[in-house]
Design a protein that fits this description.
The protein has a four-stranded antiparallel β-sheet with strand order 11-12-7-13, covered by helices on one side. A three-stranded antiparallel β-sheet has the order 1-6-5. A three-stranded antiparallel β-sheet has the order 2-3-4, with helices on one face. The protein has two helices and 13 strands. The N and C termini lie far apart (65 Å). It is of the alpha+beta class and 185 residues long. The protein has two domains: 9-84, Alpha-Beta Complex (Outer Surface Protein A, domain 3); 87-167, Ribosomal protein L6 (Outer Surface Protein A, domain 3), CATH 3.90.930.12.
Amino acid sequence: MSRVGKKPIEIPKEVGVNVSGSIIEAKGSKGTLKYELSECLKAVRAGTTIQIEPVDSNNITDKKVKSLWGLSRTLVSNIIRGVSVGFTKSLDYTGVGYKAHVADRKLILSLGYSHPVEYDIPAGIDVTVKAGKIEVSGCNKELVGFVSAKIRSYRPPEPYKGKGIRYSDEKIIRKAGKTGGKQQS
């Protein structure tokens, strides 16, 4: 049995959740998100909680049911948290002459290339730039993570000087450079 899947999902007061068949729709202050459950799972709403359960309670040991049960519970929990609180990823950029700014739903990055890198910000995502930091926020956790990874991929951090774009909580293992002295034989 799935330990994660058995946990009930608490619904905050400011979030409206509609369960119709296999589709779960959540509406909150940050937006609206939907999730469709697999055919082997069902959602049961009881007051201020939602419980994800297998359709056939005798089929709990099936590998497909076990693998999707906890995943589906986590994804439904993420959409409920996303429409109420939202998700944020923070990126740091360091390097001589590295700059970033937002203009007309585009993130424009100067990262030491011969041309500026322009990234179109998808709908539902907000990007803010402050001195040395890029904040990516939105209600969809998957989309926030994807946009952050895409921005980081334009100039990943290098291990010698630490230049590049990295997550704020990411640790870069630095390497020692060349010693610069003559080797004795």
